[in-house]
Specification:
The protein has 76 residues and is mostly helical. The protein contains four helices and no strands. The longest helix is centred in the first third of the chain and has 22 residues. The radius of gyration is 20 Å and the shape is elongated.
């Protein structure tokens, strides 16, 4: 006997998941049409890590430099 997925029983979660499914199929379609390409990014170059993970000082300052934030108080 098949059970309904718990996330589909909650209307709020269902709407969120439905949007993810639509986005996933949209991206997949664009990849197949060669409109977009996904390339590998080495873990040392993952700029989002500065916002989402505990990282070493070395990696932190490297990513800050890549984001152009060496001195946030400097005049532009």
């Amino acid at each position: 006997m098949a059970r309904a997925r718990p996330d589909l029983q909650d209307p709020v979660q269902h709407d969120r998941i439905k949007n993810v499914e639509v986005d996933r199929f949209f991206i997949r379609e664009k990849l197949e049409e060669n409109i977009i390409a996904v390339s590998h990014i080495h873990f040392d170059d993952q700029l989002a890590d500065i916002l989402t993970k505990v990282i070493s000082n070395k990696i932190f300052f490297s990513l800050i430099g890549k984001l152009g934030m060496l001195n946030i108080y400097a005049q532009t």
